[in-house]
Design brief:
The complex is a heterodimer of chains A (about 425) and B (about 260). Chain A is about 50% helix and about 15% strand. Chain A has helices spanning about 1-10, 20-50, 75-85, 120-130, 150-155, 200-205, 225-240, 250-260, 275, 280-315, 320-325, 330-365, 390-415, 420-425; strands spanning about 55-60, 85-95, 100-105, 110, 115-120, 130-135, 145-150, 165-170, 175-185, 195-200, 215-220, 265-270. In chain A, the strands form two sheets. Chain A has a six-stranded mixed β-sheet with strand order 10-5-2-11-1-12, sandwiched between helices. In chain A, helix 2 runs antiparallel to helix 10 (about 280-315), helix 2 crosses helix 12 and helix 12 (about 330-365) runs antiparallel to helix 13. Chain A starts with a helix and ends with a helix. The longest helix of chain B is centred in the first third of the chain and has 19 residues, at about 1-20. A 13-stranded antiparallel β-sheet of chain B has the order 6-5-4-3-2-1-13-12-11-10-9-8-7, with helices on both faces. Chain B has helices at about 1-20, 25-35, 130-135, 250-255, and strands at about 45-55, 55-70, 75-80, 90, 95-100, 105-110, 135-145, 145-155, 165-170, 175-180, 190-200, 205-220, 225-235. Chain B is globular, with a radius of gyration of 20 Å. The chains are: A alpha+beta (about 425), B alpha+beta (about 260). Chains A and B meet through strand 9 of A and strand 12 and strand 13 of B.
Amino acid sequence: MVLSLAWRNFFRQRHRYRVLAAALVLGAVVFSLLFGVTASLNQTVREKAARYFSGDVVVLSWEPSNDHLLKAQKQIFAAIKQSGIDVSALHRRSVYYGADAQLFFNGSSLIQRRVIGVDFSVEQNDFDRMDFLSGTPVPSKSREDVWVSDDTARRLHVKTGDLVVLMVKTVEGYSNTINLKIRGIFADSSFFGFACYMDYKVLNRALGRPVDAVTEIGATLGPGTSQEDAAERLWHALKGKVPLLPLMKTKDDIDAFTGQHPLKHKEYDVLPLTSRLKQINDLTNGITAVNLLLSLVFLIVVTIGVFNTYQMIVFERTREIGTMRAMGMQRPSLIGVFLAESAYLGLVSSVVGMLIGAGVLALLSQVTFPGNAVVDMFLVKGHLVWVWPWQNVLWVVLGMLATGFFGAVLPAWKGAHQKPVDALRHDA
Amino acid sequence: MKFFSVLLLAVGLPMFLAAEVPANSKEILARIDRQVTFMDSDYSAQVDIVQKKPEEGESFTRVALFRRDRDSEYLIMVLKPDSDKGKGYLKIGPNLWLYDPVARRFTVTSAKDRFQNSNARNSDFTRSSLAEDYKIVDSYPQKLGSLDTTVYVLQAIHNNVTFPRTKLWVTPDHLVRMSQDFSLSGQLLRTTAIPTYQKVGNRYVPYKMVIIDQLRGKEVNGRFEHEMTQITITKPSLDPLPNIMFTQTYLEKMAQ
């Protein structure tokens, strides 16, 4: 009865709610933008980190001799399939992470923190999605190519087609060099350190590794899939098939474990991306915290506005309150009617606000932002990525309902506690 | 006729073999090592290192070098510039320690690492150990300026060396006059020239060395100029050194 009465009142009193609705729609638009931009920034950073670290979930191996080669490749791919995790891209890589890898061009040199040997037969599609500023993601016939970041290209003064020298240490510890042609330059903030990509067989030859060897097999997950959950499922699928380290949440946990239990033979390890780089978590948590703070401040401001407007609305409807009370409506029901009206208002405003917000986000994603080392980390080809996770809908609706509730509850309580006789005598 | 054939075989075959791959490569390298190694005494010297980077100017480093070759120990203390004064490299046992006087901390480093950001490697200041590290895979005579030299092409026999392949130009007095260091794939990485030696006791010490980095440099006025390190060794001495010099305590004390 309360809900239907509230809906009838809400519909009939719609002219009174126009200002309030406008304020709440504006609130919903701002909320939608804040949450949409936050989701976009977080997703882009995670996607870039996932590409750098061979996926959202990665299988690595550890051995006393520091031989990181994955020997049980078939079992790992079978386990990924068997685990049933939602995979959007697979990665099969031979990675060199010696701090001494250097690229030389025309007398200048630059250290590369990670030289990533890519198996293009597995991850060409994902590689194509990288933010290329020049060149092509497709390897040449000779495969003696290298893809470098724009930051590396700027510092070494190289362009696509230039011949560079990559110096690495072989597995025996000897200095080795290889001539490579710059095949493409991609936008990268180098937040995770300088990285370059090349064919994994060419890298293996330079390192003296077996030509088909890989050190990391990983999976980029579909949208909305939890990395920790996927890692756990993959770990269970691998259990019993290969010697496996216990599932651990952070890299520090692994270091502590291997410190206490020195490895005697090769052990495999399943790592979610979140465990591999504390900075990513700090960064995304920071962005989310700033968003929540801004949202809270905005919520308080809008709530104060709603409160003032509701006071006016309740004042204008004093005689109506008196009539309802005289007809026998109890105070809690009367408060319920006003709160339900505010909930309808919140719901309608949320829907309208989200539609406008999503539209503004779509327009924003068309804007090309000027790039620099910091901004590039959050953008794809200079653009914000348009993402709209279901959590955003929940946050915006909850935010507007809360604003309506907190703005309406005190005026409704005051209105309901007037004496019916005084309320009926009231002349607005 | 038969006599001449036998004579030709007796004289010619060893010469032919020597010209191709030396039969006693270890001995040849040991002789080269012996010329610059002080097994019967300690050795100390002052080493000035001038690092030249095209268009970036020069930087100067002076170090004191103390070596006890018979125990494979050495100490290198940085005397100049003031910003690096007190820094030291100490090789005792199997470890090479780098001492940072600011942090007052020792860290393990490698002889393969670059010395003080120059083109020299830490291993360039230590006892020569060619016979232990390399084998000769080829040799041939070659004129180096006015000097008659034999070129020895060396290949590493273990991985404790900086360069897997090296070429040496050696004069008949078993002194290395020039060397070229290569990567495993055969890329020339570094050329070292040692034009002059000084005699210390019955051994030799380079007086001047020039190390040219073949990969680093800059194009200046249309010409490529390599990064270059010039090393001058002065005040060589064979005076005995106290045992305490080759300890971490000594290095810490000297840095204060």
